Amino acid sequence: MKFIPAKTRQTILEIDVDAYRFNFNYFRNQVKDSTKFVVIIKAFAYGAGIKNIAKVLENEKVAYLGVACVDEGVELKDAGIQQKIIIINPEPDGFEKLIEYGLEPVIYDFESLRLFLDALNSFRSFHKPYPIHIKVDSGMHRLGFYIDQIPQLTKELLDSEPLKVRSILSHLVASDNPKFDDYTRDQISLFKEISEKLILTLGYPVDRHILNSGGIERFPEGEFEMVRLGIGNYGISSDHAQLKNVYTWRTRVAQLKIVKKGESVGYNRAWFAERDSLIATAFVGYGDGFNRLLSNGNWHMKWKGHKVPTVGSICMDLCMVDATGHDVKVGDDLVIFDCQEEIFEMAKKMGTIHYEVLTNISKRVKRVYKI
Length: 371
Hints:
Elements: E1 2-3, E2 12-16, H1 17-28, E3 36-40, H2 42-46, H3 50-58, E4 64-67, H4 70-78, E5 85-87, H5 95-100, E6 104-107, H6 110-122, E7 130-135, H7 150-158, E8 163-169, H8 181-202, E9 207-209, H9 213-218, E10 226-229, E11 247-259, E12 264-265, E13 271-272, E14 277-282, E15 300-303, E16 306-311, E17 319-322, E18 333-337, H10 340-350, H11 354-359, E19 366-370
Parallel strand pairs: 2-19, 3-4, 3-10, 4-5, 5-6, 6-7, 7-8, 8-9
Antiparallel strand pairs: 1-19, 2-11, 11-14, 11-18, 12-13, 14-17, 15-16, 16-17
Helix pairs in contact: 7-8
């Protein structure tokens, strides 16, 4: 059975829900039964569709869903999602909306703490104490409190009757890179020291989480009471585990042309036919997230398993591939990628990382959920 949203574009991203669940269970089996999960579904659930992935996770009994911004949390609540939601990077301008929807902010500095308290004071209707999450800086040097700020932080938290800390978190810099394993262990050790000081002074139990997908696989000493799982659910393993592919990105042939030897294809005549060539135009372009860096032979699609390389520059809504020698028909499927290895290879061709490949797939690309 497939659920197909009401979009007509001929380019689709197929999401294998059973594979997603398989991968989630793999990571669940890496930790103790008592360990709680925050499942990260920010950035449109890594391109997979935030509302549908959230609905899948409703049956998995996770402790929290994690998103980046207030708007993502509001979208989930408006879709009827009942699970608790952590806002990882809340912007102060969205604090009142966050409180209205019962979302839980990560507080990362004194300014955000005070502004959130101001928002609570101006918002009369909320359940006290309001749950928050404290981010500490263990070495990422992006957001979070330093260890020498903990005494002042603790004092302000104890003086803030409307608040209760639900979790303390930090972020690993390179959990998937063995070159920096000593640094990762130092981060875990520092996080343990900071969180223990904070919890001891607060005087009540607080969950802690520093492990991401790679950390869950490689650093069991950093498990604590909770872990955060994101990209691993989509089949990305830092430990070369045999996870299942979740994504298949495909498009269709819009038109076929015979281009004579010596003629050019596409903008700025970037490609010339070295022989009479069968050129297939496909319904996908950089407006869909198929990056222009993949132009002119820097990527190939697959037609019935046969590689057909891009020719010319990728356009906003269309691109061209060389289908010479193949019995391609208008309307045929062309697979852009259908395995993790290809996602990594595409990222390499673009000079980026797999996260960007997935999160750049436009929302106008139709998502199809294979159940």
